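User: Is it possible to get a 3D structure for a protein together with its bound compound? The compound here is adenosine monophosphate. I've pasted both below.
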Amino acid sequence: MTFNELQLSEPILRALKEKKYTTPTPIQSKAIPIALDGRDILGIAQTGTGKTAAFAIPIIEHLGKQKNIKGIKALILTPTRELAIQINDTFTDYGKHSRLKHTVIFGGVNQNPQIRSLNRGVDILIATPGRLLDFISQKIISLDSLTHFVLDEADRMLDMGFIHDIKRLLPLLPKKRQTMLFSATMPNEIANIIKTILYKPQRVEVAPASSVVDSIEQHIYFVEKPQKIELLINVLREQKEKTTIIFSRTKHGADKIARTLNNRKIRCEAIHGNKSQNARQNALQNLKSGKSRIIVATDIAARGIDIKDLGVVINYDLPDVAETYVHRIGRTGRAGNSGIAYTFCSQDEHMIVKSIQKLTNKRLNTVLVPA
Ligand code: AMP
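Assistant: Yes, that's possible. Here is the predicted structure of the complex:
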């Protein structure tokens, strides 16, 4: 299928062409026709599947056709500032040939620039829950003219304790609207929310990742925990130029690795849930601009960040489930580029390696630890 077959309007097709996207991803080819039809969507999809465009494109199409109605017509609610900024960028990309205005609001920063941009008039608002409710209670924002509502990363919203905020927000939304909810997993609590916010939803699902592209070299070192840090330093010194992400199972572990590397003059930054939004944003910015090339992250913090040209993924600790391994290493080897994944496996982590090999139907290439 091509984007042309989805019968999109010229401004969107032009924007897609400029991004050199010709083929919709599976979630896009499933969700876009349903959303264009005006129906509610329950999307089971992770970040990295192209789900942002799956809801952004139909929203731009619909709002582009509406007559000049003032006020916020689409609200995208997402759990973190990083995701909010990425979604905002997606609207910038796909909406650049339409006249729609969009902006992003999130907490932890001065509210005045955000208020100024809201006052200039906004059709599409991307928000994190706290700042949104704050602005609503200050009467800076009204949602009375809303026609489209997206709840993004619903499971993560719950993990981050946003359930009460969402429950406070729901009664403030007009009843007649189109709603799309996206979640990577479907815990019971989400099932309850679905019943209250979606009307006869169409379920759109993309299979959890199990395949690893051939352009990623996968190496494994069998190494005991106390030796992992020296091995890491060796590997990083060999891969000098490549942008690298190191996965740690815990926040504390990520900090410890980052501290040791910095002490050994290997510049890196850690990102995890205990870091302030600002610190996380700076770390990402430094990586994107090339100021730093190494980041140490936990799975939760890394979810949803989109770093292009990642050359190396290092699994300092193995994840608990094999699918997470596939997601981690899928951050390299994108768009035809080659990538390398190194996995450091200690005695107690052998079982998970077996299930990774079973899931991906590939053997990891064993490398001997340098003496
Ligand atoms: P998302 O899951 O929305 O965060 O998207 C993941 C990545 O896929 C982003 O870097 C997008 O720019 C990219 N992407 C989205 N749709 C397409 C497409 N149809 N073709 C190629 N890349 C895409």
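DSSP finds 15 helices and 14 strands in the chain. The domain at 3-207 is CATH 3.40.50.300 (Rossmann fold).
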